[in-house]
Each structure stands twice: as structure tokens, then as C-alpha cells.
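Intended use. Records like the one below are meant for learning the mapping from a protein sequence to its folded structure. Do not use them to infer anything beyond what is encoded.
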Amino acid sequence: MAGLLEISLAVLCGAFLAAALTAWLTFRHVARISRLLRLRAHKEASREHLVAKVFDATSEGILVVDRNMRIVEANRAFSAMSGYARSELLGQHPRIMQSGKQDAEFYQAMWQGLLGSGHWQGKVWDKRRDGSLFAAHLTLSAVRDGQGRVQQYFGLFTDITEECARQEEIEQLAFFDPLTRLPNRRLMEDRLQQALAFATRTEKLVAVCLMDLDGFKLVNDTFGHEAGDAVLVEVAGRLQQVVRANDTVARLGGDEFVLLLAGLGDVGEAQEIVERTLATVRAPVRVADDQPALVSASIGLAIFPYDAQLAEDLLRRSDAAMYAAKRQGRNRCKRAQARHGS
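Structure written out for the chain above:
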């Protein structure tokens, strides 16, 4: 009996020890798994914290929009760029920043690229909170889930407003007269070539009107050069009011201007504009001490394709006709002799 009891105790002890060992091993395993999970969670939290810091610290503006086109995130740089606080942007549609400088075709091309390849990039003009405009190089990307469905759109904005302003200044110096802000000879000649190409395709007419002011030297001598500049600026503004939207008024230098009339249906249209030009130029211009300065215009008119076929010939023949108008008494228009009849 005593032996049986000893055996039973030994069995119980063995079972207890086995259970304790199993429990200890299980505890260690669970503790190890728990440590791994905590480590992983810590790494994930650290990674998310790092991503958040990079997101907010980058110098480029970042905007995240959901598939319903509602803003879900914006970083500090974008807020500085747009003038909107993050809280003002969340939940809004990006159209609140539309500047009106891009037309419907622009946005259609943007969406075609974005939905096709998942990416688009280009220059955009947007409107800040205070109403001023800013230019940005925008890179758009579509973010998809495992099934390929779009979840968000990610936009990266690089501010290029100053760069665009410098480019505009360069273009102003290269293509525009600094006094009157009219196109200069270089830009006028480029537009003339375009007008001739369009006229050839559409069988329209183009008129080149070279104009010189009569009596301008007397204005300078009487009132001074500042008054003379004021007359040039006033005449430039008047000429722009006379022509149509698709026409060009250019200043060649001194008191010489060119009216480039494109897409004419007949010669009569050009003659009507020339008559209005003569009338508006000879109206008095108030200068120093509200004194009236009086000038008029001598205009030479050459018509494509009747008077010449090439741009340089049109300019040369209109210039010759303008000097003929001066010789005939000024304040008038002289038509270059037609080659083929009009």
C-alpha cells in the first residue's frame, strides 16, 4: 500500500512539473510574441511619425483628395502657398482655388492623363485665399487599393510664381515696347507671319497699315519730351480701341505704329478701320497744364494678297504708301497700288 502511494505521488509530481514547465514555456512564448508585437507597433508608430514629420516638413505643397474630390489632407507648405489653414481646406473641393486662367479643355486633358496612366504633371495657376494668384508645377498621382480602385489623388505643388514673373519680364523686354506696352517690331512680324498663314488657308485678307504721326516733332518742341511720351501713350490706347480683338497694334519706334488687321472679308473692312483711326488720332490730347496737343496720322495701306504676297513686301509697300500720304498733305491714308485688283 505504501509503495502504491509513493508511485501515485511520483506521478502527481511529474504531472505537476510537466504542467508547470508547459505553462512556463507557454508564458515565455506569449511574452516573446507580446514583445515582438510591441516592437512592431513601436516601429509602425515610429514610421508613421516619421512619415508625418516628412509630410509636414517638405518644402513642396502636398494636397490629398479622396475619390469624391474632397480634400482630406494638406501639409504646412501648401497652407503657406495657398493662404488657407489646414482646417479651412479639409472637406472642401479643390475648385475653391481655381483661378479661371485654365479653360475646360485644360482640365479635360488633365483628367484624361490622370485616369489613363494614373499620373499628370504641368503648370497651373491657382487662387490664394486673399484672391491673388500663384503659379505651381503640379504633379498628380492616383492612389489605388489592391483591387485597382482609386482611393485618393495625391498632388505635389512646387511654387514657380517668381519664376513665371521673371519669364514675363523677359518676354515684356523682348516683345513689347516699354513705353506704350504695345507689341514691338519683333512680335508684330511674328504675328504677321501667322496672319498670312491663316489667310492663305481660309482665303481671307490681311491689311498692313503703317502709320506715322504728323506734327509730333512740334509737340516735343513746344511741350517737351514728357508731353511727347504722354501723346504716344494716349495714341496707343486709342488705337487699341479702334481695332478688333484679333488685330494687332504695334509700335515700331519713335512715332511710327503699325495696325495689323487679320482675317478680313473684304477691303472695305480695312478702309472703315483706317477712317476711324484717322479720326481718333486727330482728336486733341491734353498734356502740360491741360494744353491741347494736336497731331494727325499719315497711313500707308497694303492688302494681302492683292498688293504683296510676302510679309516683308507688305511692310515695304505700306511704308512707301505712308510717305506718299505725307507728300499729298498728311492726315490721310494712301493705298499701295494693287497688283491684281481688289
